[in-house]
Design goal:
about 290 residues; mainly beta; Apoptosis, Tumor Necrosis Factor Receptor Associated Protein 2, Chain A; 2 domains; 11-stranded mixed beta sheet; 5-stranded antiparallel beta sheet; 20 strands; about 5% helix; elongated
Length: about 290
């Protein structure tokens, strides 16, 4: 390892509230794609508690450079890359950097890097300057400098639970799908889609419920959905934690519950053709 003043030419990436990674259960994070001197896009892969590729070592942070889409490289082709990985020192204004190393990227060997890039003890000691106000900045340089750096940011959030509920009348007349109005949770917009007679493979067999993300960037959220019981506390409850983005904007349950269970008047989920639907969302991380 060495230090230098100049910032990396191709990529900078900030992690805010680094200590919350473990609380959010994020053991591995892949950054957005960036383009340098390669024929394919690249990305950084960061393991805040160490990787299991070269042996699990929770006392270190592991960092790797990887092809963003290894299928874009035919099996008989290769990309030879000279790269360095960086960590910003807030105290000195310099960067801790790996020496430029040359590696051959293939479809079957699509990532290279450092299992022991920096010890967690050194990183967490604020006097060293790498983690200040619980923020740290990683970077990468690949081949020759040609363009301005592409920046990204992963923001970890202290969980705040946002709740919303609906009283859905005339349930038997909803048609194929009921869509909620847009609502805000964690400074992001969402919608609920409910398919009274199921969706996809569950059509005719179950009730489908999906949470849709209405926004840009990527959001990691934990959501719990209830179909409430009118007669007792025996509600139907489902929970999931997923990444939402513009390209993958919905997660949910094709068969939240069976139609026979829902439509049985003795079960108490639909009374006077009315259904109660509740949701609780907590946003855990945001990536741009």
């Amino acid at each position: 390892m060495e230090t230098r003043e100049a910032s990396p030419a191709h990529f900078l990436f900030t992690i805010e509230s680094f200590s919350l990674l473990e609380n959010c259960g994020i053991d591995k994070y892949e950054t957005k794609e960036f383009v340098a001197e390669t024929t394919t896009g690249m990305k950084l892969i960061i393991y805040p508690n160490g990787d299991d590729i070269v042996g699990k070592d929770g006392d270190y942070v592991s960092v790797y450079l990887a092809m963003a889409d290894k299928t874009s490289l035919p099996g008989n082709c290769e990309v030879n890359v000279v790269f360095s990985i960086f960590l910003y020192n807030h105290n000195s204004g310099n960067y801790l950097t790996s020496l430029g190393i040359t590696r051959r990227f293939l479809a079957i060997t699509s990532e290279w890097g450092f299992s022991k890039f920096i010890s967690k003890k050194v990183l967490s000691d604020t006097s060293n300057g790498y983690l200040v106000d619980d923020n740290c900045v990683f970077g990468a340089e690949v081949f020759v400098v040609k363009s301005s750096a592409v920046t990204g940011c992963l923001s970890l959030k202290n969980e705040i639970h946002y709740k919303r509920d609906w009283k859905i009348s005339n349930f038997s007349q909803l048609g194929d799908v009921w869509k909620s109005e847009e609502f805000c949770a964690g400074d992001h917009k969402w919608r609920i889609w409910l398919f009274p007679n199921g969706n996809g493979d569950a059509t005719g067999r179950g009730v489908s419920v999906f949470l849709y993300y209405v926004g840009s960037g990527s959001v990691n959220a934990r959501d719990t959905v209830w179909i409430k019981n009118h007669f007792s506390d025996e509600h139907i409850e489902r929970t999931t934690t997923d990444w939402f983005s513009t390209s993958s904007n919905n997660w949910g349950w094709p068969s939240f519950t069976e139609l026979a269970n829902m439509n049985d008047p003795k079960k108490g989920f639909i009374v006077k053709d009315c259904l109660h639907l509740d949701i609780e969302i907590s946003v855990r991380a945001v990536a741009q």
